[in-house]
Amino acid sequence: MLKEYFLLVLPLAFGFSNAWAEISIDNHQQYLASDGTLHIVGEIQNHLDVPLNQVYVYIILYSGNQVIDTRNTNSLVNTIMPGMKSPFDLVIHGQKAKMVDNYSLEINYKISEPKNQAIDITSSKISRDNFDNLVITGMVANRGDHTANTVSIVATLYDKEGNVVAVSKSLIEPDYLRSNDEAFFLVSVLDKPQTKIVVDYSLVAESEEYAAVPEFPLGSVLLLAGSVSSYLLMIRYTSRSMGNLIYESYTT
Questions:
Q1: What's residue 245's pLDDT?
Q2: Pair 182, 245 in one domain
Q3: What is the C-alpha separation between 248 and 252, in angstroms, rounded?
Q4: Of the residues 52, 70, 128, 228, which has the maximum number of CB atoms within 10 A of its CB?
Q5: How many domains is the chain built from?
Q6: Closest C-alpha to 60, from 26, 91, 11, 106
């Protein structure tokens, strides 16, 4: 498979900050799921010194050199704190899923107010359930002073080369967590062909009030051979501005 990457930066009219930093789209790829849907997955890395929110990935779909559609999807983590990542997953249904052979990516984001980093995943493990689905279970804690509402867990799964192979998001039950309490969580990954190539995963948790702590855990998938020690870096751009767009072309 031949991959070609092109980077085009589209600055908006209000200009750039004097502080130089980076945002990147890493480890992205497309795959056809067992149910016939096409997924384009990857990670958004925030190298800025400020949080990001309202992060959207705009994806132009191609069949050969012909544009067949334009779609968008949002970051699965609502607030991406400095130095942290969030996955994205665009799902395409129907006949068009079989037509796409390459795509391009754009990012649009806003700089947000900081959140207290108080939602901490204290333990996790990966296993398979009775239906051979991959599941990640563990405990999440609220280190903040107030109740955390709509607590979600986002899982990103990687293959042996560090590419994103699947993502999943789940709410705890009940979906709130009082100050200094812990709760059990379970995240399922249902696409069996994708889970067979998983060798590692990462987790991030957040709530409406709080962001994740900086050191979110990275788990080794012991039931599947191998471990990922580094991630493939696709693109980087050194700039900072509100609403900055990054454009990337990907060809198979």
A1: 42
A2: no
A3: 13
A4: 52
A5: 2
A6: 106
C-alpha distances (whole Å) from 176 to each of 120, 141, 152, 154, 188 are 14, 11, 9, 16, 20
User: Is 67 found in the same domain as 15?
Assistant: yes
Domain ranges, residue 174: 117-220
Report the 10 Å Cβ neighbour count for 215. Answer: 10
Over residues 99-146, the pLDDT tens digits come to: 999 999 999 999 998 899 999 999 999 998 888 889 999 999 999 999
Which residues, 6 or more positions from 120, have their beta carbon under 8 angstroms from its beta carbon?
140, 141, 142, 143, 205, 212, 213
Q: In this structure, are residues 39 and 72 in contact, taking their beta carbons and an 8 Å threshold?
A: no
Q: CA 108, 241, 205, 229 torsion: positive or negative?
A: positive
Q: Hey, how many other C-beta atoms are within 10 angstroms of the C-beta on 205?
A: 25
The first and second tokens of residue 234, run together, are: 């696709």
Co-location of 182 and 246 in the same domain: no
Residues 183 and 140 in one domain: yes
User: CATH number, domain at 210?
Assistant: 2.60.40.10
Token pair 């334009």 is at which residue? 70
- Is residue 17 in a domain? yes
pTM of the model: 0.77
Give yes or no: residues 216 and 237 share one domain: no
Question: What SS3 state is found at 210?
Answer: coil
Residue 242 lies in a domain: yes
pLDDT in tens, 8-56: 333 333 233 333 348 889 999 999 998 899 999 999 999 998 999 999 9
Cβ atoms of 153 and 140 within 8 Å: the answer is yes
Q: Where does the chain show beta strands of DSSP type E? A: 4-10, 22-32, 38-46, 52-63, 66-74, 85-92, 102-111, 117-128, 134-142, 152-158, 164-171, 182-189, 200-206, 211-212, 218-220, 237-238, 245-251
